[in-house]
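I have been asked to look over a protein record a colleague put together. Thanks in advance; the entry in question is below.
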Amino acid sequence: MEDTLDQEGKRESSRLLARVFGYMAIGLAITGLSSFLIAYAFAQWIYKDNSAAASNTYMILMMVSGILLLIDTIVMMVVLRQGKHSLWIPYILYTLIMGFFLSSFLLVGVPFEMFGEAFGITALTFLIMFFIGYFSPANLNWLAMIALGLLFSFLFIGSFFGIAFLITRNWEAYWTYDLICCIAVSVFVLIIVAVDGYRIKAASRQGVVTNNYALYMAFTMYTDFISIFIRVLYFLMLAKSRN
């Protein structure tokens, strides 16, 4: 009897993992495709028609999109809590809007090879941290609080370099501040990925997980992945500019 329950729990865990990673992959595919199409459309407009109008339109849409991302995140939380409607529409909208944001990297001339390199590094580190959390026998929820404390500590230390830049206009101080903040956020997100892995395992042990909750877990992992990807891409761009 215990063996049967254990096998059923493992099957449910495998099904949940497949759903979450599948939904996450759909989101990443939508973001990648939309970012390419948007960048291509605006590049054609900028170089062939009216560069000033296109640039101004793009900047306005970037600001509007930032607000929409925040609103969409709140909507997803409300829909999840109410449990009356599917999260698919707000999830897809979020991935489309994020694609608009990432299109800016293509517009400034980041090569596709660098995108591929950043994606590979991100995928590898993401999977390592996720499965560390997933297969951890210990409760990792406490790590989230420690990660948050470390994040604020690093940001506090980095703020001194930010203040130094404002006073002296020393660009080395600015780059140091920027680098500390970027590393701090990256470490924080990687720890959260491990915690998310543990939480998915814990959720699968509680029984059948609703599709909305699986979508929400995919959404949190998607945002973690994008956050890591952007910072890896930034580090690669920084390394290239220093060479």
